[in-house]
Each structure stands twice: as structure tokens, then as C-alpha cells.
Amino acid sequence: MAEYKEIDSVAVIELKNPPANALSKALVTGLNNGVKRAIDNPRIKSIVLIGNGQHFSAGADITEFPRVADVTSKQGVSLLTVGDVIESCNKPVVSAIHGVCFGGGLEIALFSHYRLAVQSAKLGFPEVSLGILPGANGTQRLPRVVGFEVAMDMIVSGKPVSAPQALQYGILDKIVDGDLLTAAVQFAKTLNTVPHDRRLKNVPVPNSENANKHFEEKLAKIKQKQRGYIAPINCLKAVKASVDLPYSEGVTKEFQLFMELMSSAQARGQQYSFFSERAATKWYLSASKNYKVSKDIPVKTAGVIGAGTMGSGIAVSLLTSGIPVILVEQDSKNLERGIELIKSILQGGVKLKRMTQSQMNQILQILQPTTKIEDLQSVDLIIEAVFENLKLKQELFSKLDKICKRDTVLCSNTSTLDIDKIAKSTSRPEKVVGTHFFAPAHIMPLLENVYGNHTSAETIATVMKLSKKIRKIPVLVKTCHGFVANRTFFEYSQELRFVVEEGLLPNEVDDILEDFGMPMGVFKVNDLSGIDVGWRIRQEQAIANGFNLTTNTRYINGERYCAIADKIFQAGRYGRKTGKGWYQYDKPGGRVAMVDPNVNNIILNHCKELGLTRRKISTQEVIERCMFAAINEGFRCLEDGIASKPEEIDTIWLHGFGFPRYRGGPMFYASQVGLRKVYERIKYYQKHFPETSHWIASEMLQRIAESGRNVPISEWTKFNPTPTSSRL
Ligand SMILES: CC/C=C\C=C\CC(=O)SCCNC(=O)CCNC(=O)[C@H](O)C(C)(C)COP(=O)(O)OP(=O)(O)OC[C@H]1O[C@@H](n2cnc3c(N)ncnc32)[C@H](O)[C@@H]1OP(=O)(O)O
């Protein structure tokens, strides 16, 4: 776990725990033993700590976190004990850093007396995103190097800094070229003693005059931008303690704040999220078709069809990842509008200093706009982002099939349509796949990739790899109407429309959802995505299923239907773009949603016409109804084999809908509420709303609930009543 060797008078201790040298108990013990061995050897004059493989260290081993007692134990060897041994050692200790030096890894480096790194190294404290804080004195040590404000920013944001930035801040003593170990040993040989100020606990926090002001400003920002999260607040308080208290008391305060977080439900949710988004990327169809064995086709060039909002955002994602794009529109007017959209997105990046003007110009050089679809004949992959209409997409795919080289992968950005029906229009269904981006496509991290019955493993591997290349979090699901994202979101939002029909107003529902942690209430989301878009989807579905949808519709095939959204559409309220939807905006495209009495009148008149008596609805009922409806549908997706594990559903909600990370995702939330209770409440709602079929409890949920056990999420799929439909 930690390998010890001697090079002349220098002891080298190599951290070795692949793939990222997470500081497990075993590694920390090995490190402790190594340092003690070096101390005890009179021939050794200095010590170098270095990482094996790709990284110095990714920090504490998160898989060991559930056993809080182990992490914080005063018995045995903890990060804190080894830190003390390193700092108090009379032989200079040098941390030699490459790859990432995160969390506990950076704390080890800050216990060391000197720090060197290669140019490409990254250093940071990402603990906040795991719902905790750097608990091995990082909150007391970093400010002593970089000052209060920088330490506060780094620890509260969790964002890493580059080696050159770390050098500028004084975290690093030197950036080295060439072989890191050779340079570190050479450097260590020049050291004889440990000066007093090289032990950071002896150093005062510099530049802390305005700490109170910075603290208050940051606290206000956290409360506004990270509403509901407790970790950033405790991180901030811990860093403040480094200014307010002597070191020995500061570390006690840090420990108290750390323990508060470590035992919180939020930390459990955030740590689950870390592992679930990694689990979700590991797709598995069979022993010969899975993420481990299936080969991808390299995507060197891509085509995007449709230069509307989605198409332009998709093009930006590809272009900014260095993939040349041929952008196709049907006429030069639409093409020009798309180019302008792309330019304005990139210009936004320049303004935010994410790229320079010259980088933007270079990106535009690899964009080839055209109105000729034939120009796509030799690209490796095409993403279609045209209007959501099956016939239109089928015609387009049929055309692409004839134009493109045989191995071009054909992707559809459809958000609902069956991939098999699109693939049917080609002679290469194995090359057809769904790539469902979320708006705005250049920003939203999720990519819901959808395979059909004929999609090949090679095609799946290609889009999964491409997703990562363009910095998306990919989840693979099976085709069906709406896939996982829209299938589950539909039940959530439909239930909330019923809540409005029964008694609450849209802003009251949205307030409840935002208090629960959603970044935006569902009615504000509707206004953003366009009320006309939802209306068109409902109309198309009605036509496809052979019924007529009007503003008087109350039931469809015996199923309850709420027509309020259709009435909002009929009133010409299409959402933000028209300056009015469920809310009123100051102008078309405006962002500030204001309650509109006209909307309330539409709702109240609707209820009057139908003879509905409105009632008070509690916050608990609203959350239960929307969340449990989505969760039940999530279980159905598992039963149908559309999703293969709950982590996929949770990752989709975290990164597609901004579900609060500290709640882990709807399926994790269900596990925290308890599946027995979720099941009981679903049965209760079914009794009260028998005309809504989403309240028929999933059989899988029922089986788990009735098992009488607290079944961990990792075992849920064992309860699938139709395991052959599952991909695991
Ligand atoms: C008294 C208390 C004292 C101290 C407390 C200290 C707190 C901490 O240190 S908390 C840990 C803080 N560190 C992090 O949050 C880092 C998390 N990891 C990452 O950011 C990334 O994984 C990465 C290291 C940058 C590598 O990224 P990438 O190359 O994209 O690979 P991944 O798929 O993300 O990871 C590969 C593999 O490694 C596992 N892993 C990564 N970090 C950890 C870790 N800290 N603990 C345990 N496992 C870790 C990750 O889950 C992946 O595992 P797979 O099984 O292959 O999915």
C-alpha cells in the first residue's frame, strides 16, 4: 500500500492504491510505517512522498466513509496521526505531486514541509461536494499558506487549482520539469533541517484583516446560490475559525463541524451521488456487450442537423471539445440564425473568461455551416436535432442512410420517440441510437443515450465514449416512449398539475418544490421549455393514439386528464419567450417570474366550469404526490428493463433536472423515506385517485416493501418480477 525505498540519503515513500491512491486505512498505516522507518534510520536525511500511477492521491477513501468511526477514530492510524508524525518529523518531508492532489491528499501535502509538483498537477479540496469538509486540519492549514479569502474560495467551492496557480498562491514551492521523482530527490538532498515556519501550525493566517466582511458576503452568497446545502456553510465556518482561534482550538472547531456533516443525511446523499454517477456510466447488456469489452468508433468529425436552440448547443459541445462540426440547416436564413446563436454562446464563454477571443476564433474555424445535407457523406457521427416529429425524423434518417458512409453512427436527439421506429427507416438499424441532450445543451451535464433493439454494442460504446469526451455524464437506457427522463418527469409534473386543479396555485407549488431543493419549480420549468412545446407533444400523442384532445377533456380512456395547461396555451401564453405563461415576465424572454392574476383566473374558472371544490393541500402531500409518482414510474422503468439500476434514474434526475444532490436522486430519496412507507402512501393515493394509473404500485416496489427487510439499493433489482427484461 505504501512502498518504501531509499535513494542515497533520501527515503522515498510511494502511495500505492490504484486507481487514484485513495487514502484507505491500509494506505495510511503504510504511510505512517514508512515515515517512522525513515525517522529511525540515521542514514536518512530527508523524505519524499510521491504517488504511484496517475495521481498523488484522490484523498480519503470514500468507500470507507459509511464507517464514520473508522474515519475519525483516535485509535489506530488516522490521517491526523500520520499528519502529526510527518509535521513533527525533524527530517524534511517533501510531497512530490502529479495528477490530482485532493482532499486528504492535499492535507498530507500540507503536513509536509515542502511541496513540488509537475505543471499538469491539480490541487484542491473537493470535500464540499461530498457533503463534508477537509477534516484532517485542511481548513486550518490552507489559510495559513494562502490567506483567508483564497482558502475560503477554494474550500467552499471545492474547485481545484492548477499547479501554476498553486505556485502563485504559495501552496507549491516549485514546479518541476522532467522526471518528478528525480527532481524531488534532488531537491530533498539540498535540505538539512526543518525551519520553524515550515510547520504550518506555527504560522499565522496572512491577509485576514477583512475576514469578517468576506465571511458575511460569502455566507449570503451560499444561502442564495446553494440554498439548503449545509456543507458549504460548515466549510466557511471552519475556515473562519483559522482566523478567530489559535491553531489548537481551530482544529477542535474543525472536528466538531466535520462530525456534524459526516453524520448528516446530506453527506450520505452527496456521497451516494458520487458513486451513482460513476455506476451509471458502466453499461452492461451481456457478457460480450458491455463497457469493459465493447470497442468504440473514434469520432473525428461530426454532423449536426438543425441549428435551432438544441442543435446549436449540441454543436457548441462538440466544437469546444475539438470535434469539427458540419452544421446543416434547410435554408440559409435558419443557418445564419444558428451560426449567430453559436457565436453568442461562445462569446458568453469569452465574457466569463472560460476561453479567449482567439480560442473562440479557432473553434469557429472547425465549424462548417451548410444547407446541403450531402456534405455529411463522410462524417463519423451525426446528431439530428430537428423538430420532434416521427415522420420528419424517419424521412431524414432514410436520407442520411443513403448519403452517409456505411459506418457513420446516426444519432437522434429525440426526447420521447421510439428509437426502433426511427431506425426502421434505415438499412443500418445497428448504427442508430438516441442521444437525448437537455436544454441548454452546451451547459446541462446529462446525456441520456438510448439504445434500440438493433443498436450494436459498438454504436453504444461510441456514444458513451463521445459523451465523456464532450464532458457530459452519460447514462444508457433502453428505448420506449419518453425513456427514463421524460417518463418519470411526466408523472411528476402531471401530478403537480392535478394539485393545481385541486387547490394550489402554480407559484405555491413552485415554492414548495424550491424549498425541497429543486432549482426551479415545475411551472417555471414549463415556462422556460415552452408551453407550446408541451401542448404539441400532447396533441401528437393524442393523434397517434386516435383521440381528440380539447380544453374540455377530463378523461382519456378512463384516465384523469387536466386541461389547465392547454387553456394556458389557448390564451397565447407560451412561456418566457412570449413574456407570459404560468407566470408573467417583464418582457418576452424575461427571467423574473411574477404571479399573474390572469393565470389564477384561468385556473379558478376551469375549476368552476368542472364543478371542482378547491381545498388546502399540505406541503407534505405535494412532495409525496410528485415524488412518489416519479419513484413508482422509476420502479416501472426498472421492471421494463428501460433502466438497469436505480443509480441510472438518480443520475438522470441529478444532472437532467437539477434534483438536489444532497438528496441523492428520487430513488435514493425513496430509500431514505423507507420503501415500506413509500409503498403504503402510493396505495393510499391509489385509493383516493383511482382514475390515475400511475398510483398502481409497481410490483417490484411492492415486493421490496413486503419483504420486511430494509433492502439496500444495490439489491433492489433482485426483486424485479420480470428479471429477463432487466439488463443485469
Ligand atoms: C478525519 C477525517 C480526515 C480526512 C478527511 C478527508 C476527506 C477527503 O479526502 S474526501 C475525498 C476527497 N476527494 C475527492 O472527492 C476526489 C474524488 N475523486 C475524483 O475527483 C476523481 O475520481 C478523480 C480522482 C479526479 C479521478 O477521476 P477519473 O479519472 O475521471 O476517474 P473516476 O471514474 O472518477 O475514478 C476512478 C475510480 O476511483 C474511485 N475513486 C476516486 N476517488 C476516490 C476516493 N477518494 N475514494 C474512493 N474511491 C475513489 C472512483 O470511484 C472510481 O472507481 P470505480 O470503481 O472505477 O468506479
UniProtKB/TrEMBL annotation:
SUPFAM superfamilies the record matches: 6-phosphogluconate dehydrogenase C-terminal domain-like (SSF48179), ClpP/crotonase (SSF52096), NAD(P)-binding Rossmann-fold domains (SSF51735)
Catalytic activity, reaction form: a (3Z)-enoyl-CoA = a 4-saturated (2E)-enoyl-CoA; (3E,5Z)-octadienoyl-CoA = (2E,5Z)-octadienoyl-CoA; (3E)-decenoyl-CoA = (2E)-decenoyl-CoA; (3S)-hydroxyhexadecanedioyl-CoA + NAD(+) = 3-oxohexadecanedioyl-CoA + NADH + H(+)
GO biological process: fatty acid beta-oxidation
MF GO annotations: (3S)-3-hydroxyacyl-CoA dehydrogenase (NAD+) activity; delta(3)-delta(2)-enoyl-CoA isomerase activity; enoyl-CoA hydratase activity; NAD+ binding
Pathway membership, UniProt: Lipid metabolism; fatty acid beta-oxidation
Domain of life: Eukaryota
One Pfam family per UniProt: 3HCDH_N
EC number(s) recorded for this UniProt protein: 1.1.1.35, 4.2.1.17, 5.3.3.8
InterPro entries membership: 3-OHacyl-CoA_DH_NAD-bd, 3HC_DH_C, 6-PGluconate_DH-like_C_sf, ClpP/crotonase-like_dom_sf, Enoyl-CoA_hyd/isom_CS, Enoyl-CoA_hydra/iso, NAD(P)-bd_dom_sf
One GO cellular component term: peroxisome
Family: In the C-terminal section; belongs to the 3-hydroxyacyl-CoA dehydrogenase family. In the N-terminal section; belongs to the enoyl-CoA hydratase/isomerase family.
Residue ranges annotated for the 3-hydroxyacyl-CoA dehydrogenase C-terminal domain, each copy included: 482-585, 622-709
Protein name per Swiss-Prot or TrEMBL: Peroxisomal bifunctional enzyme
Domain 3-hydroxyacyl-CoA dehydrogenase NAD binding: 302-479
Primary location: other
Organism: Lottia gigantea
Keywords assigned: Fatty acid metabolism, Isomerase, Lipid metabolism, Lyase, Multifunctional enzyme, NAD, Oxidoreductase, Peroxisome
Subunit structure comment from the entry: Monomer.
Lineage, highest ranks first: Eukaryota, Metazoa, Spiralia, Lophotrochozoa, Mollusca
